[in-house]
Amino acid sequence: MDDRPARWSTATTFPDMWVDPDDDPRDTQGPGPEGESATLRDFLTGYRLTLRMKCEGLDAEQLARRSVPPSTMSLLGLVRHLAEVERDWRNWITDGDPLPRLYGEKDADFHGALAEQALVDAAFSDLEREQSATDAALAEHPDLSERVGDERIAVRELMVHRIEEYARHCGHADLLRERVDGRVGQ
C-alpha cells in the first residue's frame, strides 16, 4: 500500500505546468518591464504569486502538514517564515532599533505552524502586511546602488536577496504541495 497521492495538474495545454497559460495570474506574456528596478519588482511579484498559488485550495491541516521527519517545513511554515524575513529585511533598511520578531525565537515560524484556521488566516495577513511595509520602505530608496541601514547594504543586494529567498522557498513549496495532494507544476 502506498500513501503517496497521485500526481496531477489542472493544466491541459502543458501538463507539466501548474495551470494553463491563459489561467496564470503571473502574466508572463508580452514584453517584460523596462529597467532594472521594475524587472526586480516583477520577479519578486511573480514568486510571491507562485507561493500563494501553491497554497491555494488547501485546508489548515494540509497547509500545516510537515514534509518528512525530522523537517519542520510546511507550506504554512513557509508563509510564516517569509512574513518573518520580510520584517527582518525592513530591519536591514533602517538605522534604528530592530522590529521584534513576529513569532518569537528562531524557527518558531515553522514550529508554530499548526493546523488551526486562525493561525492560517493570521499568517497570510502577516505576510501581506509585512510585504507591503517592506515594499513601502524600499520605495523610499529608488536608487538601487544606495546603501542603507547599519550594515550599509545596497538596495540592489536587498532586492536580489528577497527574490532569491522567495525563489528558494517556492522550490520547497513545489515539493511540499506535491507531497500534500500530488499537484505538480511550475
The CATH class is Mainly Alpha
Structural class: mainly alpha
Residue runs with pLDDT of under 50 for 5 or more positions: none
Number of helices: 6
CATH superfamily: dinb family like domain
From the 3D structure, determine the CATH topology.
Four Helix Bundle (Hemerythrin (Met), subunit A)
As for the number of domains, it is 1
Give helix % range.
Answer: 40-55%
Query: What does the main sheet amount to?
Result: 2 strands, antiparallel
> What pattern of helices and strands is seen along the backbone?
HHHHHEEH
Gyration radius, to the nearest Å?
18 Å
- Please report which band the strand proportion falls in: under 5%, 5-15%, 15-25%, 25-35%, 35-45% or over 45%: under 5%
Q: Ends: how far apart?
A: 29 Å
Region (Disordered): 1-39
Protein name: DinB family protein
InterPro entries: DinB/YfiT-like, MST-like
What is the strand and helix layout of this fold?
Blueprint: H1 36-55, H2 60-64, H3 75-93, H4 108-111, H5 117-139, E1 147-148, E2 153-154, H6 155-181
Report on the architecture of this protein:
There is one protein chain. 53% of the residues lie in helices and 2% in strands. The chain is mostly helical. The protein has a single domain (41-181), classed as dinb family like domain (Four Helix Bundle (Hemerythrin (Met), subunit A)). A two-stranded antiparallel sheet has the order 1-2. The longest helix has 27 residues, at 155-181. It is flat, with a radius of gyration of 18 Å. The mean pLDDT is 91.
